[in-house]
Specification:
With 223 residues, the chain is α/β, with parallel strands linked by helices. It has a single domain, classed as Aldolase class I (TIM Barrel, Alpha-Beta Barrel). The protein has eleven helices and eight strands. It binds erythose-4-phosphate. Erythose-4-phosphate (E4P) is lined by residues 6, 26, 28, 108, 128, 130, 132-133, 164-165, 184.
Length: 223
């Protein structure tokens, strides 16, 4: 399963790229608002310089023409931009027209397998079911990921399932087991995936034992 970083924070993206685990990036207006300080376009271009994987840029227009105009604008920024378009009747039309123009899309705000199926049929290359937001309203978000992954596999659809709205490391494991092609994770979750208290304890113990062994050898050689 590919791992995308769900952030517009350049330092976080650089760090994940250095770790060798970064396959792409997703941004949205909320994530952009969190960092600010530069235009959305400048941040997207900087991200595209760090990774050659897909980088999602989200539109905010309500009508098809507006969405298309934004899609063309973002797609022209870098070859690896994927335009994020929300699920709706308007969104489906915009996705279909982007496909006809050769612009890759990520259908966002998917909460049912049927929404994902329609987005795939319209031509979206990425389907983003929101796991955490469904869990928040006492539903099982991962069911949508599993159903959608099965539908994509059974019908050999071209789209990939991108598990989004990931809140904790267990979500990542479950998304991988449910057959998601990609999980997009906040940097904090990526850090949580790295750590385990027994790993930390083991590193300290190995270092301590190594130093004790070296000291014993030095003492023996000094005899
Ligand atoms: C990514 O594509 C989504 O916009 C993001 O994962 C949403 O996450 P949230 O539900 O934590 O805002």
């Amino acid at each position: 399963m590919k791992i995308f970083l769900d952030t517009a924070d350049i330092d976080e993206i650089r760090t994940a790229a250095r770790w060798g685990v970064l396959d792409g990036v997703t941004t949205n207006p909320t994530l952009y608002a969190r960092v600010g300080g530069a235009s959305y376009e400048a941040i997207l271009q900087e991200i595209c310089r760090i990774t050659s994987g897909p980088v999602s840029a989200e539109v905010v227009s309500d009508d098809v023409d507006g969405m298309l105009e934004e899609a063309r604008h973002y797609a022209a920024l870098a070859p690896n931009i994927v335009v994020k378009i929300p699920m709706s009747e308007t969104g489906l039309e915009a996705i279909s027209r982007c496909k006809a123009e050769g612009i890759k899309t990520n259908c966002t705000l998917i909460f049912t397998a049927n929404q994902g199926l329609l987005a795939a049929k319209a031509g979206a290359s990425l389907l983003s079911p929101f796991v955490g937001r469904l869990d928040d309203i006492n539903e099982e978000g991962m069911i949508v990921v599993r159903e959608l992954a099965e539908i994509v596999a059974i019908h050999e659809l071209e789209a990939e399932v991108l598990a989004a709205s990931i809140r904790h490391p267990r979500h990542v494991t479950e998304a991988a087991l449910a057959g998601a092609h990609i999980a997009t994770v906040p940097f904090k979750v990526l850090q949580q995936m790295v750590r385990h208290p027994l790993t930390d304890k083991g590193i300290v113990q190995f270092k301590k034992d190594w130093e004790a062994a070296r000291a014993a050898l030095a003492a023996k050689q000094g005899d």
